[in-house]
Design a protein that fits this description.
Helices cover 24% and strands 33% of the residues. It is α+β, with helices and mostly antiparallel strands. The longest helix is centred in the N-terminal third of the chain and has 12 residues.
Length: 205
């Protein structure tokens, strides 16, 4: 079962193109300019579930990043952080390299009841739309940007904030863009793994 619990990103571009752009961006970091061997980029064949195992164990920083081919010209992005930093990676790469990106977040709320949910759409340097349902000592519902044509905006008027954005709505919004995050058939059989060796050894942070 595909389960990007804490967050996943999706780029509307082929895997090879996405990997080349991400590598160029990562290597602009001054540390890798000085020590280029500190970043290892290699292809990873197999199933998406097997690819996700390459991100274990989860850590507090971004030691590993995984790009994975998907259907309909999309490429998925995940990282090794306990709480995914997909929003930074997707927004940042779209900003510096262009293209369209989407971030999908779904993780259990701290209350133990319900899910914190995130949907964000980027186009180049622009944040086109973001929707978030989060637990902040109480449910908070936040949006940015103009509603997309397929949004169920009447739901945003619900008195109870937890009902304004649901897992089913998040999945429907993704499908409108051609993304099926929790459908195993959406994912292909190859990916690219980025490993920050210096971070993994604790020498960079």
């Amino acid at each position: 079962m595909i389960e990007p619990v804490t967050g996943a990103g999706y780029f509307r571009m082929p895997l090879a193109d996405c990997a080349a752009r991400l590598e160029r961006w990562r290597r602009t970091h001054a540390w890798f300019a000085e020590k280029p061997d500190g970043l290892v980029v290699r292809p990873v064949p197999g199933s998406f579930e097997e690819g996700q195992q390459r991100l274990l164990p989860k850590t507090g920083n971004r030691q590993r990043e995984l790009l994975w081919e998907c259907a309909d010209g999309w490429t998925a992005y995940l990282d090794s952080r306990f709480t995914s930093d997909a929003i930074t990676a997707v927004g940042g790469l779209c900003s510096v390299a262009g293209g369209t990106g989407v971030v999908v977040g779904r993780r259990p709320a701290m209350t133990g009841k319900g899910m914190s949910l995130v949907f964000a759409l980027f186009d180049g340097p622009e944040t086109v739309r973001s929707i978030a349902l989060t637990w902040e000592g109480g449910w908070g519902f936040h949006t940015f940007g103009e509603p997309l044509p397929f949004e169920e905006t009447d739901r945003y008027l619900e008195r109870r904030k937890a009902n304004r954005f649901t897992e089913e709505m998040l999945e429907r919004y993704c499908r409108e863009l051609g993304i099926r995050p929790w459908d195993p058939d959406f994912y292909g059989s190859q990916g690219v793994l980025f490993t920050d060796l210096l971070s993994a050894k604790g020498s960079r942070r």
